């Protein structure tokens, strides 16, 4: 049985999910990585279909904040990956299991910080 803390950490927070993986015509998630969370509601997970172009990804609004719980309900294979730490990268070729990736550099999200 999952503890309440674990459920909150894994399913009570948000991920940034490609718009291509959401909605009525959603494509399956086939690439995901975990970065350092940006805020307390962010898990750090970023989920993609693998069909996103560089131009698509340049538009910040194409990555929707979305709860992980419905993503795991739609695809139970995601659930087993969520306990991994920041820096973890996974891909799933069609009709194959998830495979850990070691040759992808996670993009660094720029944060403006003012020092006073």
Architecture overview:
The chain has helices at 4-11, 54-58, 68-74; strands at 14-18, 31-34, 42-48, 63-67, 89-91, 99-100. With 116 residues, it is an alpha+beta fold. It has a six-stranded mixed beta sheet with strand order 4-1-3-2-5-6. The N and C termini lie far apart (47 Å).
SSE blueprint:
Blueprint: H1 4-11, E1 14-18, E2 31-34, E3 42-48, H2 54-58, E4 63-67, H3 68-74, E5 89-91, E6 99-100
Parallel strand pairs: 1-3
Antiparallel strand pairs: 1-4, 2-3, 2-5, 5-6
Task: Give the gist of this structure.
The protein is an alpha+beta fold. The chain has three helices and six strands.
Keywords:
single chain; 116 residues; alpha+beta; globular; disordered N terminus
The biggest beta sheet is recorded as: 6 strands, mixed
Stretches where pLDDT falls below 50 for ≥5 residues? 1-12
Oligomer: single chain
Helicity, as a percent range: 10-25%
- The whole-number mean of residue pLDDT values reads 86
How would you classify the helix and strand content by structural class?
A: alpha+beta
Give the helix tally.
Answer: 3
- In whole angstroms, the N-to-C terminal distance is 47 Å
Percent strand: 15-25%
Radius of gyration: 14 Å
Number of strands: 6
Instruction: Name the overall outline.
Output: globular
Question: Strands of the biggest beta sheet: in what spatial order?
Answer: 4-1-3-2-5-6
What order do the helices and strands follow?
A: HEEEHEHEE
């Amino acid at each position: 049985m999952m503890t309440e803390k674990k459920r909150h950490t894994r399913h009570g927070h948000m991920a940034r999910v490609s718009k291509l993986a959401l909605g009525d015509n959603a494509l399956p998630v086939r690439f995901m990585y975990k970065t350092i969370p940006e805020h307390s509601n962010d898990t750090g997970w970023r989920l993609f279909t693998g069909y996103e172009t560089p131009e698509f990804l340049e538009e910040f609004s194409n990555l929707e904040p979305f709860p992980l719980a419905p993503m795991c309900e739609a695809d139970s294979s995601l659930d087993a990956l969520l306990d991994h730490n920041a820096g973890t990268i996974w891909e799933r070729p069609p009709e194959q299991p998830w495979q850990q990736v070691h040759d992808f550099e996670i993009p660094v999200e720029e944060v403006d910080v003012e020092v006073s």
